[in-house]
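Researcher: We plan to redesign the surface later, but first we want a full-length starting point. C-alpha cells attached.
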C-alpha cells in the first residue's frame, strides 16, 4: 500500500476512516457495555449468586466516582499525528472540513481527537471505553477485525472493498496487520502493549497497581484507567459478535454492511431478548482467559451468521451463490442449502432461536412475476440475528468481566480480649493474574450494623490494629473502584449501634415551672430531653425514659393560695424493631437520600400519668374552690424510616419514627387538654 505524501491523501484518509466502525462507538458500544455491567452486577449479587470466586464480594459500580482522562472529542488522528502535518496540509484539511460538514459528515469524524479530565463511576468508565476504543478512528478502523478461521498470524482485515472509489482510497492506507483481539488484549509483543494504552493487559496492570497503592487518590486514578481498559476490551468482544468483523468483510461508505447500518441507527438494547445457545454459554463460563472467550464468540458468529457479502451455498432458485467478499476464500458455514426456504426467506435454528439469514425476495414479487434477486440481508433478517447475537455478546462480556476482577480473600485471623485484631488480604493467582497482588490499601473493621470500628493500613497483604472490645461480631472490608470484598464475620462481642432521640423541631429548654406553656403539657412528652439508647444487631430496641413531674403554683405542703397545676408522667417506653437492617445499611452505603427515605421497621410508644389542678374563684366575699384530677394513658404506633435531608450538605442519616395514620394517641384527658403527641420522632445514628 502507498504512503501518504500530499494534503489530498490526508483528506482521503479522513473519508476512509469512516468505513469500519462495527456497532457504532457513539451509541451502540457504550450501551452494550452498559448491558454487560448491569448483567454482571445482577448475576453476582452478594448472598444471592455466590460462586467461590466472588464469595463475599459486593459490586457498587454506579456509586463511587473516579478521576481520569477521557475522550472529550473524537477524531481521525492522534494529537501527535496531527502535529506532524505541514501548515499547508492543515490548511487544506480545514478548508475541506466545511464541505464535509455541509455534506453531513460530523465534525467529530475529522481532525485530531482531544482528551480532558473528568470523574465517572466504574460503570461510566466502562461505558466510555466502548466509545474511546474507536479513537483515533484512522488507527481503529483497521484494527477491529478478527477472522477465527484463518491462521493465527493472518486474522486481521485483508478484504479489499467492493467499491472502485473506496478501493482506491483504501490503497493509501498502511495495513497494520494486527487483528482486533491482539490489538485489544495487547499481549502480543510489539502490538497492543506499546500502541494501546487501554489494552486488557495494561488494564490488569492498572488494577494491580491500584490494589498495591497506598495513596487513595492515586488508587482511584488507577482504577479509572483499569475500568476504561475493560470497556475498550468489551468493545472488541462486541465486534466479535458482529458478522462482517469476523468474516473479513470490509464495509466502507458506499458499500456499508446492512447489519451494522441498521443496528447503529437502532437502540441496541431492544435486541437483548433472545436465548443464548446453552452450549455457547457453557463455553464462555469454563473459559479461563479473555482471549479464549473472544475466540469462542468469533467462531460462534462466523459459523452461524452471514454478512451481506459472505452469503454462499446452493440457493432455492439461483444455484451456486458465491461470496462477494474474497470469493476465493469461502466459509464452510453457514450454507444456504442447509436452511429452510419459505416465503422467500432462508432460516435455520441457532440454539432455540429461529434466525432469518437472508432473503431473495424481488421488489415486485408481490405481483407474482416470479423473479428473484441474489440473496441479501434485509431488516427482518437483521432483527432476528441481533436478538441472538446481542445477548450472546452480553453473556461473553459478563464472563470476561468475571476474569478481570482479581480473586481476593479477606480474613480476620484473630482478635483478643483487648480488641487487637489481625488478618490478611490474599490474592489467588489464575491464568489472567499470574503474578501475586499484595494489597496495601485500607482495611475497614466493621460490626454487623455496618459501623466502622477501625481503619487499618495493610502492608503487603497483612493488617493489624485495635478495635473496641465491647461488641459481638466483626468483619473486615476493602474497597477498590466500587468493588467491595468482605471477610466472614468473626465472633467477638460486637453488634449494637446507638441512637439519640431528637425533636423534629429545634430542641427547646424544659419550660419554667411558672410558665403558662404548661397549659400544653403533652407536647413535651417526647422531645423535652435527649435520650441515648442502643439497637441490637437484630434490630431490636426497648428503651425506658424515666418519669417526671411538672408543677405550677404548688408549694411543698400542697396547694398555696394561688391556682395550681401538676402533671405527673410515668415511664415512657419506646419499643421498636428494625426489620430490614440490610436495606437500611445498603441505603446508607449507596449514598441514598430523599425526603421520604425507605421504611425499615416499626416502633410503639407507651406511657401513663395523671393531671390535677386547683382553681380558686372569688365573687364578692365568697370563694369557690374547684379541684380536678385526671388519669391518662398514651399509646401510639409509628413506622420507622431511614432518611437523610438532601437539601443540606453533609446531613446525617437518621432514623425517623412517623406516627401511623389512625394510631390512638391518648386516652383519659379532657378535650381542652387533649394535645396530640409528636407526629414524628427523629433519632440520630451514633456510629
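Model: Full-length starting sequence:
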Amino acid at each position: 500500500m502507498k504512503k501518504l505524501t500530499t494534503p489530498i491523501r490526508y483528506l482521503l484518509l479522513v473519508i476512509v476512516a469512516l468505513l469500519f466502525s462495527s456497532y457504532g462507538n457513539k451509541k451502540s458500544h457504550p450501551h452494550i457495555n452498559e448491558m454487560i455491567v448491569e448483567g454482571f452486577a445482577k448475576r453476582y449479587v452478594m448472598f444471592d449468586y455466590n460462586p467461590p470466586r466472588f464469595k463475599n464480594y459486593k459490586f457498587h459500580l454506579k456509586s463511587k466516582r473516579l478521576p481520569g482522562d477521557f475522550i472529550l472529542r473524537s477524531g481521525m488522528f492522534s494529537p501527535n499525528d496531527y502535529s506532524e502535518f505541514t501548515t499547508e496540509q492543515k490548511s487544506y484539511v480545514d478548508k475541506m472540513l466545511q464541505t464535509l460538514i455541509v455534506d453531513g459528515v460530523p465534525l467529530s469524524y475529522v481532525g485530531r481527537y482531544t482528551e480532558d479530565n473528568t470523574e465517572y463511576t466504574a460503570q461510566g468508565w466502562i461505558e466510555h471505553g466502548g466509545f474511546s476504543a474507536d479513537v483515533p478512528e484512522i488507527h481503529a478502523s483497521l484494527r477491529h477485525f478478527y477472522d477465527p478461521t484463518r491462521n493465527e498470524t493472518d486474522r486481521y482485515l485483508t478484504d479489499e472493498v467492493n467499491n472502485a472509489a473506496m478501493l482506491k482510497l483504501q490503497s493509501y492506507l498502511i495495513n497494520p496487520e494486527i487483528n482486533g483481539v491482539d490489538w485489544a488484549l495487547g499481549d502480543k509483543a510489539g502490538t497492543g502493549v506499546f500502541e494501546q494504552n487501554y489494552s486488557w493487559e495494561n488494564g490488569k496492570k492498572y488494577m494491580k497497581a491500584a490494589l498495591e497503592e497506598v495513596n487513595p487518590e492515586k488508587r482511584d486514578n488507577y482504577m479509572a484507567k483499569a475500568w476504561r481498559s475493560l470497556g475498550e476490551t468489551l468493545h472488541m468482544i462486541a465486534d466479535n459478535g458482529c458478522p462482517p468483523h469476523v468474516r473479513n468483510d470490509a464495509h466502507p461508505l458506499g458499500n456499508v454492511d446492512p447489519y451494522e447500518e441498521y443496528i447503529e441507527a437502532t437502540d441496541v438494547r431492544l435486541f437483548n431478548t433472545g436465548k443464548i445457545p446453552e452450549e455457547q454459554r457453557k463455553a464462555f463460563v469454563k473459559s479461563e482467559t479473555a482471549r479464549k472467550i473472544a475466540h469462542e464468540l468469533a467462531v460462534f458468529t462466523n459459523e452461524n451468521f452471514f454478512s451481506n457479502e459472505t452469503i454462499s451455498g446452493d440457493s432455492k432458485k439461483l444455484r451456486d451463490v458465491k461470496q462477494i467478499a474474497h470469493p476465493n476464500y469461502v466459509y464452510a458455514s453457514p450454507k444456504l442449502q442447509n436452511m429452510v426456504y419459505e416465503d422467500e426467506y432462508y432460516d435455520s435454528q441457532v440454539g432455540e432461536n429461529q434466525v432469518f439469514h437472508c432473503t431473495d425476495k424481488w421488489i415486485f414479487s408481490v405481483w407474482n412475476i416470479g423473479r428473484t434477486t441474489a440473496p441479501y440481508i434485509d431488516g427482518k433478517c437483521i432483527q432476528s440475528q441481533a436478538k441472538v447475537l446481542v445477548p450472546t455478546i452480553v453473556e461473553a462480556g459478563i464472563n470476561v468481566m468475571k476474569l478481570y476482577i482479581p480473586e481476593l480473600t479477606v480474613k480476620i485471623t484473630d482478635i483478643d480480649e483487648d480488641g487487637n485484631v489481625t488478618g490478611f488480604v490474599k490474592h489467588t493467582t489464575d491464568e489472567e493474574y499470574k503474578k501475586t497482588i499484595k494489597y496495601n490499601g485500607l482495611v475497614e473493621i466493621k460490626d454487623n450494623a455496618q459501623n466502622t470500628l477501625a481503619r487499618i493500613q495493610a502492608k503487603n497483604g497483612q493488617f493489624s490494629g485495635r478495635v473496641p472490645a465491647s461488641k459481638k461480631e466483626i468483619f473486615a472490608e476493602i474497597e477498590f473502584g466500587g468493588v467491595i470484598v468482605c471477610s466472614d464475620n468473626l465472633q467477638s462481642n460486637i453488634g449494637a449501634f446507638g441512637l439519640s432521640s431528637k425533636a423534629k423541631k429545634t430542641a427547646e429548654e424544659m419550660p419554667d415551672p411558672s410558665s403558662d406553656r404548661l397549659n400544653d403539657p403533652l407536647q413535651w412528652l417526647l422531645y423535652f430531653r435527649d435520650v441515648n439508647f442502643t439497637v441490637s444487631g437484630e434490630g431490636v430496641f426497648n428503651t425506658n425514659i424515666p418519669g417526671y413531674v411538672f408543677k405550677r403554683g404548688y408549694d411543698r405542703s400542697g396547694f398555696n393560695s394561688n391556682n395550681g397545676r401538676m402533671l405527673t408522667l410515668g415511664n415512657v417506653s419506646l419499643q421498636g424493631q428494625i426489620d430490614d437492617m440490610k436495606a437500611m445499611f445498603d441505603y446508607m452505603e449507596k449514598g441514598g437520600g430523599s425526603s421520604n427515605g425507605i421504611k425499615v421497621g416499626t416502633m410503639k410508644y407507651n406511657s401513663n400519668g395523671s393531671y390535677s389542678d386547683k382553681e380558686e374563684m372569688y365573687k364578692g366575699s365568697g370563694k369557690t374552690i374547684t379541684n380536678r384530677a385526671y388519669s391518662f394513658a398514651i399509646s401510639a404506633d409509628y413506622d420507622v424510616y431511614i432518611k437523610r435531608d438532601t437539601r443540606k450538605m453533609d446531613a446525617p442519616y437518621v432514623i425517623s419514627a412517623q406516627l401511623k395514620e389512625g394510631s390512638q394517641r391518648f386516652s383519659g384527658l379532657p378535650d381542652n387538654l387533649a394535645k396530640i403527641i409528636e407526629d414524628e420522632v427523629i433519632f440520630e445514628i451514633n456510629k
